[in-house]
Structure formats: structure tokens, C-alpha cells
Amino acid sequence: MAKKILFIVGDYVEDYEVMVPFQALGAVGHTVIAVCPNKKAGEFIRTAIHDFEGDQTYSEKPGHNFTLNGTFDAIKAEEFDALVVPGGRAPEYLRLNEKVLEMVRHFAKTNKPIAAICHGAQLLAAADVLGGKSCSAYPACAPEVTKAGGTYANIEVTEATVDGNLVTAPAWPAHPQWIAKFLVVLGTKITL
């Protein structure tokens, strides 16, 4: 059965972490709506490509413009079946928006599926929804996961982890596992 999935995004979200799951979830029949505070459907956000090139942390390059298909002020979290929080720099400032935090809390309180990747854990930590949960994230976000009462899942960059309704991964190289595990949590059945 198709689900209605909310993406909360903002400028300089990681390019692959918004584009790939947005397209993949839509390709299997789910309705996917991406919103950004202070922006409307048809407007775009800028993205950044984070790459792993042997430095002490990721490098950053300009990504594509990503067109929003929902208006932030018009949506109601109650009308959605699941939430996706991509990483990049967007979660760093989105966590300062109380309406965004309320939306995240809604999905956690109602035990609806939540998928977060990379720096998306910053938003979950700020919403105080990680207590007692195992959560993976970009390694630099590990202190935020533990300070928020979660257990940091230190897994390979190509892996994903599930704790109840929460599906998390360290970064976009985990897309095959992260998206597959989220589809399982969603109850998605794919037949070829």
C-alpha cells in the first residue's frame, strides 16, 4: 500500500541524500513531498555534494538545485505516514525551527517510520526523540546522538541500522541498505 512520505529539507542539504531517496521512494509508488521552511512548492533549494576523498572529513562541492513539491506552511505532519531527514548542512539550522521540531516529534510519538541519514541525526537530537534508541549518523554527530540519550551505532559507511521505527545510516554510500531497510519498515512490497 502506497504511503505518503514527508521530506524536511533546506538549503545545502546533501545532494545525493535528498535526490536518491526522493526518486527511489517515488519510483516504488509512494507519494513523496519535500518541504522547506519559508519556501513554497515550485521553489528550489540548493544542495551540496559531500564526498569522501581521503581527507579528515568530507569535502563539499556545489550540487544541483532541488525543486520542492510542497509548501511548508500548508502541510500537516498528521497527514503523512513517514518522515525522511536527509543530511548535509540543512539539519544544523533546521533544528532551530520549532515547527520543524514539532513535526519530527509527531512522527516519533506516533511511532511512524523515520529515516535519517548523516547529519539528519542533528535534527532528531534537537527534537529529543533519540532517548533509548540506537542511531547511526556521520561520525562527527556521534556526541549529539549520545547527549540526546541515544546509543551511537558505529557502523560502516555502507551500512544502515534499524531500531523499531527508526532507520539510520552514516552517509550516502549506505543508500542501498538504508533505502531497502526503510522500505521494509514502511511495509513496502516490490514485485518484479
Automatic annotation (TrEMBL):
<dbReference type="InterPro" id="IPR006286">
    <property type="entry name" value="C56_PfpI-like"/>
</dbReference>
<dbReference type="Pfam" id="PF01965">
    <property type="entry name" value="DJ-1_PfpI"/>
</dbReference>
<feature type="domain" description="DJ-1/PfpI">
    <location>
        <begin position="3"/>
        <end position="183"/>
    </location>
</feature>
<dbReference type="InterPro" id="IPR002818">
    <property type="entry name" value="DJ-1/PfpI"/>
</dbReference>
<keyword id="KW-0645">Protease</keyword>
<keyword id="KW-0378">Hydrolase</keyword>
<dbReference type="GO" id="GO:0006508">
    <property type="term" value="P:proteolysis"/>
</dbReference>
<dbReference type="InterPro" id="IPR029062">
    <property type="entry name" value="Class_I_gatase-like"/>
</dbReference>
<dbReference type="GO" id="GO:0008233">
    <property type="term" value="F:peptidase activity"/>
</dbReference>
<protein>
    <submittedName>
        <fullName>Putative protease</fullName>
    </submittedName>
</protein>
<comment type="similarity">
    <text>Belongs to the peptidase C56 family.</text>
</comment>
